[in-house]
Amino acid sequence: MADLKLEREFPTSPEILFAWISDGAKLLQWWGPEGMHVPEHDLDFSRLGPWYSVMVNADGQRYKVSGQVTHTNPPKSVGFTWGWHDDQDQRGAESHVTLRVEAAGDGARLVLDHRDLGDDEIAANHNTGWTSSLRKLEAQLG
Fold first, then answer.
1. Whose CA is closest to 21, among 132, 139, 135, 134?
2. Which residue range forms the structural domain that includes residue 44?
3. pLDDT reported for residue 124
4. If you average pLDDT over every residue of the chain, what do you get?
5. Is the pTM of this model over 0.85?
6. Are 131 and 112 in contact (CB under 8 A)?
């Protein structure tokens, strides 16, 4: 199984960064790669339980992903399962995401761990998507 780990530093407090990775209204401002919008969702990583989002690109292609929020530990971390849906809305292989926040100098560091991604090609695709999404978060907090 392939894993992915990304780190970014932000010029804000750990508490504010945690709000951006857990609060649904803030998540929607950076969730999904650049060029995508999220017209359908239940994004709230501040509580345990189910979540989902449907991302749509400029061509109208829909990408649904869902899971369960497995832990929330403000202002340090949230964890959730992740599974893409196919065209018949059947959920595929499950992977696991942890978003961890820690103090870093005058700001805060976000550590994104996405585990159990299958093979290297799947991990590379997720690296591209998460990197694009994190650029959107950097734009919000920069």
1. 134
2. 4-141
3. 96
4. 97
5. yes
6. no
